[in-house]
Amino acid sequence: MRDPIKATFFLDPKLHEDLKIRIYYDGFSNQSAFFRACVVSYLEKDDKFMEFLDSYRGNESLQSKAQIKKSRQLRKSGSETMKKLGLSQNEVENIFDLIEEEIPDL
Q1: Are residues 78 and 105 in the same domain?
Q2: Using CA atoms, how far apart are residues 59 and 52, in angstroms rounded to an integer?
Q3: What is the domain extent for residue 101?
Q4: How far is CA 68 from CA 39, 75, 88, 92, in A?
């Protein structure tokens, strides 16, 4: 396992205080645990997390409704293809590792 990387960002002091209170209230041991949970949910394309992001992107006008719908359809299609092929996410990552070993310049 590689050494962890520290990620930082800026928040308004009031937002930071509110965040710390909510994290404590919701039972997270610290802010890192909360953000790790968010990052893992995002990277694993957790259905509920992605639903939240779709809603957020629409409400904040980060993407058009058509783009959000297309992203949702692509995620669904990819998930169905993985099921048809009987592949888990771990197996897909292993495939990419094998390709990288064979073709390092890729």
Answers
A1: yes
A2: 10
A3: 46-106
A4: 20, 11, 25, 25
| pTM of the full structure | 0.63
5: buried, middle or exposed (CB in 10 Å: 19+, 13-18, 0-12)? exposed
**Residue 56, C-beta contacts closer than 8 angstroms, at least 6 positions apart:** 62
In sequence order, which residues have a C-beta less than 8 Å from that of residue 106 and are 6 or more positions away?
99, 100
50, 17: one domain: no
* Same domain flag for 84 and 32: no
Six token digits for residue 72: 């949702």
**pLDDT per position in the chain (106 positions), as tens?**
789 889 899 999 999 999 999 999 999 999 999 999 999 999 988 989 999 998 998 888 887 888 888 888 888 887 778 777 777 766 767 777 778 777 877 6
Give domain status of residue 2, yes or no.
no
Are residues 52 and 89 both part of a single domain? yes
